[in-house]
Description:
Layout: H1 7-12, E1 32-36, H2 38-41, E2 50-62, E3 65-75, E4 87-89, E5 92-97, E6 105-109, E7 111-112, E8 118-119, E9 129-138, E10 141-150, E11 160-169, E12 181-183, E13 194-202, E14 205-211, E15 219-225, H3 226-230, E16 238-240, E17 245-246, E18 265-268, E19 275-281, E20 287-293, E21 304-307, E22 319-324, E23 333-339, E24 345-352
Antiparallel strand pairs: 1-24, 2-3, 3-4, 3-5, 5-6, 7-8, 9-10, 10-11, 11-12, 13-14, 14-15, 15-16, 16-17, 18-19, 19-20, 20-21, 22-23, 23-24
Amino acid sequence: MFEPKALSACLASRVVLAASLVASCTGPAPRVTAENWPEADALFHSDPRWLGADGAYSVDLGRGRFLWLFGDTFLAREPGGTSSDALFLRNTLAVQTGPDPSRAFMEFSWGVDENGAPRSFVPEDGEDWFWPGGGARVGEALVIFYARIQTPSGDPSGFEAVDWRALVVDDPDDDPSDWVVHDAKLPPHRGDIRPGAAVLVADDHLYGYAETGDSTHDVYVSRWTTTNAAAGDLSSPEWWCGGEWSTSCADGPAVVMPEAASELSVQGGGTLAPYIAVESEGYGATTLALRTAPALEGPWSDPESFFRPPESRDGETNVYAGKGHPGLGGADLVATYVAADLYYPRFVRVNIR
């Protein structure tokens, strides 16, 4: 049972995740149930060259089209190839047509270099590469956030996020191979907090949830007017300072979600709460969890597990990248996660009653 610390959070977060519990505030809480959705999983297996990836953010492009943003990807050199001999791309994407993933069509995309060979959709910059965060349709434009990643000195198998980047697509209704893409204008001094862990548009603003990438993964929230965001000007973000929005918080931005996941989703919660966030709780043999809040800046509840992936039950598989996908149909809430041994996103169908 949710037992939020503040009454306002309680009233916004009346949810029972297990079953026969009684809500702690006013009246019975909605009940959340979840299950794997193999009929929808087939969507990620529909291209004979695209052999799996992680990340799996989605963006509602409108008109029944949804953009998927993937991180590290295995791409067969030719149809029918296997992952053991595949190309390794740092990011790819796909466009889903139709809101119900169990009935939709998916077309995958990646970049092509000057010789016609496949490359990451957002190409590497020297030794640095780019992993996707969230994105949002802002008017006629599309804004996508990426993290700049480097290999730490002395740790060739590791990685660290060192900066962030935002791309603006002027014509997102076109095929991705025809997109006109340019970099957004960013703050001159960006510090250690990188927006893009979750992104959404609400109240005439583009909101970007941010984290520092350290071991705590505390999450902050920034925003821009949709007018500026659509024009590609992200140079002056307002941050939630704990009691107000400001471009300069006296004591630094306030933590809105302590110890959260490094990638998550935030969306309107419907009957569950005004806003919900979906994340993987921890890393490894983890669960999918949700938080609720009455406003985008919070107060956010503590995470509550609502689904344990079957891959987590052996205690040996790394399960991560949990997030929800607003706009997708076929369930009250559609979520995904990635299991490292499978290395394809898996769908979860969530019902709220």
